[in-house]
């Protein structure tokens, strides 16, 4: 009887797994690529994802490559670039989604940032010593399609580093505040505000 029950349970597991999307899963810091094993996603997941987070401060570059099952609540982030920059830091997350088994295998491909100056400018400041809103001492030139000004004040931790206090203002992509899709860098208690950039 126990053998029959075990066989039934195993059959249910196999059937459930067969209905689930398979996605390659990996997470690696300090590199632009990662590879892993394809595993079944949770029921209801319809897309796989792969991407890269590029967080730069001065000459320091923090890269995080990732592949996974896409949380259905984050489907609106598919195919979009999330970006914020000022004269000291830049932060970019590129994400690509697909909807077939193991479709996120292969290299993580990142769209080059358009550095062509546009008509917009935003207030420019940065500190890693306080969560109080920093005071802008100048402006930063926005580029490409970035037409939004953003400000962040709070605590965050980059991959491999301790929790620190940050405050910054700069140019951002349109959906940066709305979606804010962090991967390697993690923000905790923070204020994030966006507003349309103005032409000088």
TrEMBL record:
<protein>
    <submittedName>
        <fullName>Sodefrin-like factor</fullName>
    </submittedName>
</protein>
<feature type="domain" description="UPAR/Ly6">
    <location>
        <begin position="120"/>
        <end position="179"/>
    </location>
</feature>
<dbReference type="InterPro" id="IPR050918">
    <property type="entry name" value="CNF-like_PLA2_Inhibitor"/>
</dbReference>
<keyword id="KW-0732">Signal</keyword>
<dbReference type="InterPro" id="IPR016054">
    <property type="entry name" value="LY6_UPA_recep-like"/>
</dbReference>
<feature type="signal peptide">
    <location>
        <begin position="1"/>
        <end position="20"/>
    </location>
</feature>
<keyword id="KW-0964">Secreted</keyword>
<feature type="domain" description="UPAR/Ly6">
    <location>
        <begin position="21"/>
        <end position="105"/>
    </location>
</feature>
<dbReference type="InterPro" id="IPR045860">
    <property type="entry name" value="Snake_toxin-like_sf"/>
</dbReference>
<dbReference type="Pfam" id="PF00021">
    <property type="entry name" value="UPAR_LY6"/>
</dbReference>
<dbReference type="GO" id="GO:0005576">
    <property type="term" value="C:extracellular region"/>
</dbReference>
């Amino acid at each position: 009887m126990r053998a029959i029950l075990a066989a039934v349970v195993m059959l249910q597991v196999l059937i459930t797994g067969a209905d689930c999307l398979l996605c390659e899963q990996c997470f690696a810091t300090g590199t632009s690529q990662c590879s892993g094993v394809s595993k079944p996603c949770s029921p209801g997941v319809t897309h796989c994802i792969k991407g890269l987070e590029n967080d730069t401060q001065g000459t320091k570059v923090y890269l995080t490559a990732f592949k996974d099952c896409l949380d259905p609540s984050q489907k609106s982030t598919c195919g979009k670039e999330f970006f914020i920059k000022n004269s000291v830091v830049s932060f970019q997350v590129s994400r690509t989604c697909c909807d077939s088994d193991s479709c996120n295998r292969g290299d993580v491909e990142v769209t080059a940032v358009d550095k062509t100056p546009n008509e917009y400018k935003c207030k420019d400041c940065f500190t890693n010593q306080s969560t109080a809103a920093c005071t802008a001492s100048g402006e930063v030139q926005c580029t490409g399609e970035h037409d939004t000004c953003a400000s962040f004040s709070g605590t965050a931790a980059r991959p491999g580093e301790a929790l620190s206090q940050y405050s910054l203002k700069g140019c951002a992509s349109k959906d940066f505040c709305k979606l804010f899709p962090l991967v390697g860098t993690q923000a905790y208690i923070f204020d994030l505000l966006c507003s349309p950039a103005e032409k000088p």
